[in-house]
Amino acid sequence: MKKISLLTLGLVASLAAAAQQKPNIVYILTDDLGYGDLKCLNPNSQIPTTNMDRLSREGVIFTNVHSNSAVSSPTRYGILCGRYAFRSTLKKGVLGGYSEPLIEKSRTTAPQVLQKAGYQTAIIGKWHLGLEWGISKTLKPVLDSNNKMVPGSNVDYSLPLTDTPNDHGFDYSYIIPASLDMNPYVYIENRKVENPTMKEMAGSSSPRGVFWRKGLASADFDITQTLDHFSDKAINYIATYKSPKPFFLYITLPSPHTPWLPGAKFAGKSGAGTYGDYVCHVDDVVGRILDAIDKKGLKENTIVIFTSDNGADWKAGDKAAFPKHDANFIFKGEKSDIWDGGHHIPFLVRWPNVAKRGTVNQDLICLTDFFSTCVELTGQSVKPGDGEDSFSMLSAMKGTSTPKTSRTEMVHHSINGMFALRSGQWKFVDGNGSGGWTIEANPDKFEGQLYDMIKDPQEKVNLFATMPDVVKKLRARLNEIRKGNGVEK
After folding, report:
1. Of 75, 184, 194, 348, which one's alpha carbon is 20 to 30 angstroms from that of 398?
2. Tens digits of per-residue pLDDT, 268-279?
3. CATH numbers and ranges of domains, the chain
4. pTM as predicted
């Protein structure tokens, strides 16, 4: 047996100490949580959000953060890739549970940047970016009435998957394929379905919000327990972590997206019905995660990022039933829309070693900016073309410099593929209407929309017809970005 020199031991110890100095990162991504759901952002919220408010008191509140899309899959692509999803194969809508992978095999992701810097990386929760399922050699695909293959009809759940989060920068993954209302209903751990014995699960469509599609599910899958199941997994990951390396834990909660399934102890806890009670459940999960970090002694050197993938699915009927609650705050529209209600989201950061608690930041920030933040945080380099729609927000998270970010413009994108450009005070929408689910009673007749977001953050006054020069300039810039030129890079 060879002797290990004191010099070698010292080098190993030095490397371990350097690794420990890098902050851990816990990124909590909720699903369809509105800006106005949080008490710390909307004092009139009818939902008690004790733990989200605690996070805001202990860190930095960001008031002008937007998801890069008004719906799930493209936003998640943007977070991991630092890139607008309209540059990918997904031009509108979202993926399904059996969809092919959206992230290109050659694409560098934020967790890969962190891996290169010595991080252990993990994702626990909803994926919704496509997977490569194991295909049966004996099952014949089932065709629908249009002679098209029924998705998943030839999948063998006992086979390993060949394109999963593990192939895009995550050392450990424990996921559901897509949204909690989409089949198949299975947990996948590191390329393998946890329980490949399948059953047919009936769907649900009532009452409002308690919706999921029928489809195949693991025999022991309990849809009512998914939120707590993921939170238990995340807490256990933190509590049992032993590596000297720093870690990145991406917790992608499937809630408060439908189905709204709050635990019994949260029933009636809010003034916003079942939806509000489910947000209370989400808030409890956030508190348990924060407690796990603190109990492990990791609080001071752990960056906690808390946000949502898009605006709330809070419709006119919900507002009529609960008139005191504005899930999307003052912003027009809802999830799916090009208006700010579709993509203006909560964003909180806690980093006790660095960030001054109680700071409020008003910088224009996009969720794609996480990629470049990881690059700057770790001092890594990436190849040309990676993260082309990303700006580092590291200085904004620290709250130490002015200006805190270099972003001056941002592209918004709706579920139907409508575009908008935010540039300075202006927001130009390249089309009429919401571009999503909201139907206006009396839409205007112009071919586009222009709003002064400083004077009119509720997008009430369309200036399209009165300011043609501004429209012309912004339309030209939007087209330039869409053709492939990054955002002022």
Report:
1. 75
2. 999 999 999 999
3. 24-403 (3.40.720.10)
4. 0.94
- The secondary structure element, H or E, covering residue 409 is strand 409-413
Query: Which of 15-29, 108-122, 161-175, 368-382 bottoms out in mean pLDDT, i.e. has the lowest?
Result: 15-29
Q: What is the pLDDT of residues 34-51, one digit of tens each?
A: 999 999 999 999 999 999
Contact 47, 271 (CB under 8 A): yes
* Interatomic CA distance for residues 54 and 298, integer angstroms: 17
Burial state string for 148-162 with b = 16 or more CB within 10 A and e = fewer than 16: eeebbebbebebebe
Residue 11 pLDDT level (bands cut at 50, 70, 90): very low
CA 303/CA 357 separation, integer angstroms: 13
Give the whole-angstrom CA distance, residue 160 versus residue 163: 9
Q: Residue 7: its pLDDT value, please?
A: 52
Tokens encoding 471: 């429209």
Residues 22-32 have a mean pLDDT of: 98
Closest CA to 194 of 176, 171, 178, 180: 176
- Both structure tokens of 34: 């509105």
DSSP 365-403: EEGGGHHHHHHHHHT----TTTTTT----HHHHHT-SSS
Nearest to 100 by CA among 162, 156, 190, 144: 162
Tokens of 74: 């493209």
Distance CA 159, CA 134 (A): 5
From residue 460, give the alpha-carbon distance in Å to each of 198, 274, 388: 50, 30, 32
